[in-house]
């Protein structure tokens, strides 16, 4: 079948003459799977290309590619734009529209009403297996048998004449090695400075501010297959840097050791790399040394807050001392250590933020990444805000990082920590 993916713009739209770099790992992964199974795939990239910024311009892609199915991936920052796009698409075509992504999974049935039932099917969780089954169902069934056949696919929601049918729980891929690596050529990439990938998926922990779209079960790819895929990708893209985007890169320490051994043996240790999701309480000296030997230059560690009254409500499953120890150990070994600091979590105040800042400075990381707390869909933080704070704006119109935060404003405030104080600390 012919599948047209659409990647909606997020809160930072691309500029004229300067394409964005936010290539969707989800779309690249699904494209690779579909191509392997004989489907034809195209992409309308609104997230990275200025010339694709208007909804009306999608019509050209529909006319040229003539898709059998349209797939729209939706993250939180894309949601408002996605609603507009999907409604417009439904006016232009009767081609089935399938949506998926983190925000789709978090909202479940609500997305159908928000989009005025313009979508046909939503995929909950990871889409590799579900999407293949959906495409085969559309290919092999008439309209009279379609709904009954779709009902047999777990983890989707079906729009049956504005009556919704949910077929089961969120679906997660059990064996990641069964699937090919992401195919970024769908974005027109020929050379790429930084190659991005995931060696594992899922996070077993339960932080209040985070929605675990990829599930709470940690699943890994085999280190040998990861390295083999990187070697093949290097032939295509000639990158000079690698970024691992795992939610918890070092959840299984022995797995990281095996991956590092494979990187060293293959010669890939000459290419510098970084790990974004390092868990502080699982960092030790041997792990740091092995990662450095394998070419790791930078790690990112989630700290969030170091004030006891704030920290206890996050439910990270760590202790403040273990976080400090992990950061200090990393600083001694890696060239760069960046820590995440969230301003305005439950129980936070201006004074408690300053406390965390001062404690972090003592640890001497090379960078501190600040963000304003935002109650994202599906999180316990959103429940807390609805009960104990004043909501100033939804997660869709609240920007959390850099100078843009001053334009977007603050998502919520409390009597103990006002909007003005949050921006002042930021």
Summarize the structure.
The chain is built from 16 helices and 17 strands.
Compile the SSE list and pairings.
Elements: E1 2-7, H1 25-36, E2 40-45, H2 58-65, E3 69-73, H3 79-92, E4 97-100, H4 102-107, H5 110-114, E5 121-123, H6 128-140, H7 143-150, E6 156-160, E7 163-166, E8 194-197, E9 200-201, E10 219-220, H8 223-237, E11 241-244, H9 253-266, E12 273-278, H10 285-293, E13 296-304, H11 308-314, H12 320-333, E14 336-343, H13 350-363, E15 367-372, H14 380-388, E16 390-391, H15 404-408, E17 412-413, H16 419-425
Parallel strand pairs: 1-2, 1-3, 3-4, 4-5, 8-11, 11-12, 12-13, 13-14, 14-15
Antiparallel strand pairs: 5-6, 6-7, 9-10, 16-17
Helix pairs in contact: 8-9, 9-10
Describe the protein in words.
The chain is an alpha/beta fold and 426 residues long. The chain has 16 helices and 17 strands. It has helices at residues 25-36, 58-65, 79-92, 102-107, 110-114, 128-140, 143-150, 223-237, 253-266, 285-293, 308-314, 320-333, 350-363, 380-388, 404-408, 419-425; strands at residues 2-7, 40-45, 69-73, 97-100, 121-123, 156-160, 163-166, 194-197, 200-201, 219-220, 241-244, 273-278, 296-304, 336-343, 367-372, 390-391, 412-413. The chain has a seven-stranded mixed beta sheet with strand order 2-1-3-4-5-6-7, with helices on both faces. β14 (336-343), α13 and β15 form a beta-alpha-beta unit. It is globular, with a radius of gyration of 22 Å. It starts with a strand and ends with a helix. The model has no long low-confidence stretch (mean pLDDT 92).
